[in-house]
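To illustrate the input format used throughout this study, we show a single complete record. The first block contains the structure-token representation of the backbone; no residue identities are included at this stage. The design step must infer an amino acid for every position from geometry alone.
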């Protein structure tokens, strides 16, 4: 799968996770389809997809034994690095540490990791 296809997979997993875990009606930006996603966000999604893919590959699939929390933390940390890359002074919510993320976002991040894992199987 190309990095662009991986970025789309990432975005689709994000949207599915938001729809599954977000309490109430999510903000429109949370569920914007790929074609409406800003370029910086597409690039960030592609980078994080590549990091997850590489992590799964170099562990020979042993990432399947990680807990959902460990998987979600990995996605969140990779995403935070992208926020610092794309924004000189990101909003605190964009770079919040794992314990400060809302439950719906932690669950969605874990879903993203697992979606990438499944795509590599």
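Output of the design step:
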């Amino acid at each position: 799968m190309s990095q662009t296809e991986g970025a789309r997979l990432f975005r689709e997993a994000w949207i599915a996770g938001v729809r599954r875990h977000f309490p109430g009606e999510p903000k429109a930006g949370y569920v914007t389809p790929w074609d409406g996603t800003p370029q910086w966000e597409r690039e960030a999604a592609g980078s994080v997809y590549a990091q997850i893919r590489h992590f799964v590959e170099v562990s020979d699939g042993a990432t399947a034994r990680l807990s959902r929390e460990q998987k979600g933390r990995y996605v969140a940390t990779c995403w935070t690095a992208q926020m610092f890359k794309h924004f000189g002074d990101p909003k605190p919510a964009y770079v919040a540490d794992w314990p400060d993320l809302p439950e719906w976002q932690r669950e969605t991040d874990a879903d993203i990791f697992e979606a990438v894992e499944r795509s590599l199987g």
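Structural context for interpreting the output: DSSP finds four helices and no strands in the chain. Residues 8 and 68 are 22 Å apart (CA to CA).
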